[in-house]
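Researcher: Let's run the pair from yesterday's discussion. Sequence first, then tokens, for each.
Model: Starting with the first of the pair.
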Amino acid sequence: MVEQAEEKAMVQFLSKFDKSPFLIRFPDNEYTIGEGDPVFTICMKKAIPLADLLKSTSIALGEAYMDGTLDIEGNLYEALDHFLGQMGSFSTDENALKKLIYSSVTKKNQKKEVSSHYDIGNDFYRLWLDETMSYSCAYFKHPTDSLYEAQKNKTERILEKLYLKEGMTLLDIGCGWGYLLIEAAKKYKVHGMGITLSDEQYKEFQKRIEEEGLQDFLTVVLMDYRDLPKTGKQFDRIVSVGMVEHVGRDHYSLFLDCVDSVLKESGIFLLHFISALKEHPGDAWIKKYIFPGGVVPSLREMLSCAAENRFHTMDVENLRLHYHRTLLCWEKNYMEHVGEVRQMFDERFVRMWDLYLSSCAATFHNGIIDVHQIIFTKGINNDLPMTRWY
């Protein structure tokens, strides 16, 4: 009787997600949500308590999938693509989850949060990223582009937008494993510095600099962006790809102040970030398991903060569908190497990471999140071409 009551309570809660019909199958009962033939099936070993769904729908469903209590019959991404367009109807008790949703932005805690994601092992990331080790949105010029070609396209496009010339100085805030700076040094002979909070990325980038013989052109430093003003350095160009999402909503202005402090007058700053239509504290499951402390800025708040530093917005490009395709490529690569992942991590992690990649692909496809590249100039720069030179 108790199990039946929990089943019905769960089904009643999920009945509002009826834009695409689906079937919920329990050991002894089946329920159809929505009208028409079900487009996917959720298989439940037991019901998720209603209190858990109300506290955080995303954590409750996500943990059930990670634990194997919930499974999807068929393709996980396709089911999520139908379901996650309705994320606006998810429940989140922000008071109960306050520490998770609004985590500390101290240097110590942000270092810990970044390490929890990026320091789980370079060998793990090599399994499903491409040869460039680029962990951000690729750029698919042609329908036939491979992930590797698309990541090269993305890097070339960014470097063209920066309007680099030989001898310039370039700072990469959140440099990852260093591919962008390596290409900038090789192609344009610029002098670059990358900063990161990830020990694993730092070691790999340092190794790559030595292997490429670029010690006279590139340096990588373990550094918090807040320490940039202390360096006394000045750069002609600054780029930041997929890093500002780790800064925290209260620190966007501080982040841009730090950029301003090391960017030369008339210099170009390219900011590439996952964005949202409106301000939102973020998804609780993603914060708990994937990106602790992560916050997705809205485009409008980033533009507003930039204006306070006399950053003139020269160009804005939305790459949402490029990220959708990038994530599908990553998920495919991941599943092709899932046996090797199982040798590194337990089954809960294996399912968690697949859920992360598939759900992100679905949220980009449904327009829950976007990704934008913005070109700013510090003050006026009349030397750039009047057309989109890239």
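Model: Moving on to the second of the pair.
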Amino acid sequence: MLADTATIYIEAGNGGNGLVSFHREKYVAAGGPDGGDGGNGGSVILEVDDKVSTLADFRYKKQYKAQNGGDGRAARCSGKNGEDLVVTVPVGTLVKDANTDKVIADLNKLGQRIVIAKGGSGGWGNSHFATPTRQIPRFAKSGTDGEKREIKLELKLLADVGLVGFPNVGKSTLLSVVSDARPKIANYHFTTLEPNLGVVDLGAGNSFVIADIPGIIEGASEGIGLGHEFLKHVERTRLLIHVVDASGIEGRNPIEDFDKINEEIEKYNPKLAEKKQIVAANKKDIAFDEDVYNAFCKEMKERGYEVFEISAATKLNVDSLMKYVSGMLDKIPMPVLVDEDDQEEKIIKFEAEPDFTIRRENEFYVVEGEWVKRLVGSTNFSDSESLQYFQRSLKKKGVIKALEEKGITEGCPVKIYDIEFDYVK
């Protein structure tokens, strides 16, 4: 079956740590700080590539991580930046946040790139913290962590025209006679498992892509017959050809069949029901009941549909149908599921997490958060200047004020990861 959905975990590289280092040279008793900065972590980039046509590869590899940045070095040498990780996806891939199902990007152009997870920044070496009054800083900054996200990929076929209708009405046969597609054709009443695409070439550069959209049977909007997996492929098409077996040879009512399919489409997404539809009354050559066939065509015309009386098997009126479709496509713009700017590379900004949180755990006030964790990691608690910097940073960031708003009093214990101390106002 076509792999058209995948959920993967992506992680950008962490920034390298800044270095605490002092210049060492013969005959120089007290060299100044020369710790270099850490390198930036690599980002994870999604890129549209025409060599990729499915999401099948994501079945076997679920996690993608970019390279971390290198740590700073002595003599003010910066660490090496981590390499970006480029993950290729097919044209027509919709990117969603796996937790919220919110659409992040619609990748519908070759070469389009988005930075889906940005690498962390490198930390400053101790050379940045030297001042006239603090000439021997024994601390540096840790690098920031790269962004981590779980995302969902959905491949929505880039077809101009979609063939919809019950199984066994002749959609696959019609696709095979108007294009170079070679779908499996048989007399069955269960749905094709895989969408089939073909290119209809009418000459003089006049061509379009047509797809047999499987899975749409009664109950498809509720997931019956793989409906949920394939109904979404209708979303990108500009025009629908509703193929109906109007011959009456199986004793079915073609008007009821037509209505049931449209009901399923509307239940799945009401906007899809607004798409332009052309009715192909198929199997005219073997019409078992002429009254049923004619009544169906009359009803569709009265409803305002353009009706073509065709036989996909004998190609009766098929050319006329395709020429009419081509003319209609010239008037219908390509739908865009997500508004995109013209940037070649776009950085996706996710909602930022809070810098810190405070909670009570027994007698402790526990302070947590990525920013606080980085601050602890970059503090030398045995050095008075580094400790003062730690305290000033907590106050400047609002941690002290937040603790007071939580009701902390003199002498109450505070825990910040591995560090414990008593609150002193």
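Researcher: Give me one sentence on the second I can quote.
Model: Confidence is low (pLDDT under 50) at residues 184-192, 223-228.
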